[in-house]
Design brief:
The protein is mainly alpha-helical. It has helices spanning 3-12, 19-26, 32-44, 53-78, 80-86, 91-94, 101-119, 121-139, 151-173, 179-199, 204-210, 215-219, 221-245, 249-271, 273-299. It has one domain: Farnesyl Diphosphate Synthase (Orthogonal Bundle), CATH 1.10.600. α4 (53-78) runs antiparallel to α7 (101-119), α5 (80-86) packs across α11 (204-210) and α7 packs antiparallel against α8.
Length: 304
């Protein structure tokens, strides 16, 4: 029996989504990067963030479960036909979230995100609106930037790393962050383009059939992995150079160690990119985000 027939029969048996399927739809494992980046923003402004526990906690929840969760729901709704090929067990194509419930959940969470963003002041509210717009621009027609292997991962990288970092710094310091913070946040967001490219390996076959031109589809696994490795490494080289330039040599040293271990892991990745991309996401990416926090501590006390 075809996936389409199975999905249709499952949907006709259910009118309401399964509670567990809703949690699966929101993909909690994806919440960590923006939550971590928001914390990096808070750390990078140093003493300006002290005592602002409500803004810290509310921002972390907004960045992860609310905004990132909403983006996952929107993406799964817009990708339901691709997922029927790549991952037919996903909540929407499997029928565990029937009808248009996936769309309604994404829209409801968009509204909730905007309301919570208001509580974080003008900087938090503006950043939340940008994040919501980016989530829908990535997934939904007619924009659907995920069709591009350049713009799609770039938008996600900036939304996952740069935007929450900037937001955490702005909300916790009640003003525009200093330029060093903006530069480092931007560099790590650019580097995250490579992480998002590696994430596209799991959807290679479905993307190819549905016309999603991810880098693994357009360049092939080997070249796409090489591009991803360079895109992740080069911004970190710049971060290291800036740390030494700003007289933060120990922070530059520890980020260098992190990058060298990443480069060793990249050599393993490049031997079989399609098979080893999940392994690298569990090892090299952990080192990448560790470097983010080291850099955040290195930024404390730096002016504009």
């Amino acid at each position: 029996m075809s996936v389409t027939t199975d999905t249709h029969q499952s949907q006709t048996k259910r009118n309401l989504p399964e509670p567990r399927a809703i949690l699966t739809l929101l993909k909690p494992i994806t919440w960590f990067p923006p939550m971590w980046a928001y914390l990096c923003g808070a750390v990078s402004v140093g003493s300006a963030a002290s005592g602002h526990w409500v803004g810290l906690a509310l921002g972390v929840i907004l960045a992860g479960p609310i905004v990132c969760g909403m983006s996952q729901a929107a993406n799964d709704w817009c990708d339901r036909h691709v997922d029927a090929i790549n991952e037919p067990h996903r909540p929407i194509p499997s029928g565990r979230i029937p009808g248009k419930w996936g769309l309604w959940i994404a829209l409801l969470m968009s509204g909730v995100a905007a309301i919570i963003g208001l509580a974080l002041g003008p900087w938090g509210f503006a950043a939340t609106l940008v994040a919501i717009a980016a989530a829908w621009a990535y997934s939904a027609e007619p924009v659907r930037l995920k069709r591009s292997g350049l713009w799609g991962p770039g938008l996600v990288g900036l939304s996952y790393e740069s935007l929450p970092w900037f937001t955490g710094a702005a909300v916790l310091s009640a003003g525009a962050p200093a330029w060093p913070i903006v530069i480092i946040a931007l560099l790590y967001g650019i580097g995250a383009h490579g992480i998002m490219t590696l994430n596209d390996f799991k959807a290679l076959e479905g993307d190819r059939q549905m016309g999603v031109n991810s880098l693994p589809v357009t360049l092939g696994p080997k070249r796409a992995a090489q591009v991803a490795a360079w895109v992740m490494a080069v911004p970190q080289f710049i971060v290291i150079a800036l740390m030494f330039h700003w007289d933060r040599p120990w922070f530059g040293f520890f980020i260098t160690v992190s990058l060298l271990v990443q480069i060793a892991a990249m050599q393993v990745l490049l031997k079989d990119p399609k098979a080893r991309a999940p392994w690298y996401n569990a090892t090299g990416v952990t080192l990448y985000v560790s470097g983010m926090m080291i850099a955040a501590f290195g930024l404390r006390g730096l002016g504009g």
